[in-house]
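Hi U.,

Before I forget, here's the chain from the pilot set. I'm dumping it here mostly so it's searchable later in email.
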Amino acid sequence: MSPQEFARQAGLLFSDQSLLRRALTHRSYVNEHPDSLEDNERLEFLGDAVLDFLTGAMLYNHFPEMNEGQLTRLRSELVRTEQLAAFARELHLGEALLLGKGEETTGGRQRPALLCAGYEALIGALFLDAGMEAVSAFTEERLKDTAECFLRSDSLLDARSKLQMWAQAEMGETPHYRTIDTSGPDHAREFVVEVSIAHELFGEGKGRSKQEAAKHAAADLIARINSDASGNERNRID
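Structure:
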């Protein structure tokens, strides 16, 4: 899919087509095509900041009953790697990315970190091309609907706290977290954290910060424990 076709399907109108193309250009493509001027990493940096601001403003305006801690947790869920990758998939952004052959053959179009970066770069490009109002019009309904879905599913409960209470009650142990991998450029690090209980139960999670990755590791282990609960004497984690 060409950048122009992608923009039409996404309902976007770019005055500067070079910005759109740059937003969809992965560094692996630039490495193989010296005539390409720039990859999307600087736009990714800008888009990350724009999304943080707009997400915070949307939550502040639409959820006046929430305190600062609740707003912070909800914003973290909305801008985490996996969620932004999901937004990118809705737009079929992966099909429009300009990738090098190596990245293409190893499944780069489906990789969450790459899709997240592409989505952030697209937001950065849209901001430069048309301003904050255009970005808000493009993102706000999607962000609001997703936030309401999180709240309905009760998915914002603190997974680390729930796991710790369960581990102490069921096993007399405290979960242990350790960072097992770090990747990506300095402005867009991705961390992988493993959580274990008594060297017996294990979970793993990824995130743009160690705290986010630890939270997803706890959620992963909770899912594993609940999946196995019927086959052993341990209680589920509700």
